[in-house]
From TrEMBL:
SUPFAM superfamilies: Cysteine alpha-hairpin motif
One GO cellular component term noted in the UniProt record for this chain: mitochondrial intermembrane space
Provenance organism: Acyrthosiphon pisum (Pea aphid)
An example Gene Ontology biological process: mitochondrial respiratory chain complex assembly
Family recorded in the similarity comment: Belongs to the CHCHD7 family.
Keyword annotations: Disulfide bond, Mitochondrion
Subcellular location: Mitochondrion intermembrane space
Domain of life, source organism: Eukaryota
PANTHER family to which the protein is assigned, alphabetical: COILED-COIL-HELIX-COILED-COIL-HELIX DOMAIN-CONTAINING PROTEIN 7
Name of this protein: Coiled-coil-helix-coiled-coil-helix domain-containing protein 7
Record InterPro entries: COX23, COX6B-like, Cys_alpha_HP_mot_SF
Length: 80
């Protein structure tokens, strides 16, 4: 399984699949999929910032495990 399709290494797998499915269903019409595409972009930005923070603080692995991501996401949602 490639890394992009592996949920453990890709924290935005669900958002990626939803945006791809929308594009497929709308025959590539991005205007019909803006919410899904924006959600995917936001997800990637969120986890990239987590990755950078952990790397700067020398916390390995730089990308949290699936279990850690669930906790981080829950904490973020409770704080916002």
């Amino acid at each position: 399984m490639s890394e992009a399709k592996n949920g453990d290494s890709n924290p935005c797998l669900q958002e990626q699949r939803l945006s791809f499915k929308c594009l497929q269903d709308s025959f590539g019409d991005k205007s019909k999929c803006e919410p899904q595409i924006e959600n995917y972009k936001d997800c990637k930005t969120f986890w990239y910032n987590i990755y950078k923070e952990r790397k700067n603080n020398k916390i390995r692995p730089y990308m949290p495990s699936l279990e850690e991501r669930i906790k981080i996401k829950k904490e973020y949602m409770n704080g916002h």
